[in-house]
Design a protein that fits this description.
74 residues; mainly alpha; 3 helices; 64% helix
Amino acid sequence: MVTVTIPKKEYQELVERALQYEYLQEVMREGIFSPPPTRNHKNIMDAFRRTKKYSKKFLTSLSQGLRRSDYFSV
């Protein structure tokens, strides 16, 4: 076995990348492209509003998009 010495900062970056890769694999296994759990437009909008993270303009745009979509019910 050969021992390799690297700086601590580089080691930490490699560990961080490995953890991110494992997380991405887990997300992909769960089905990143699976359909949302609800098709109800009102429930989705209520959930977004409750977070208080989104601007009124974004919420209006999202609502219009959901209404236009054939997938979500109004």
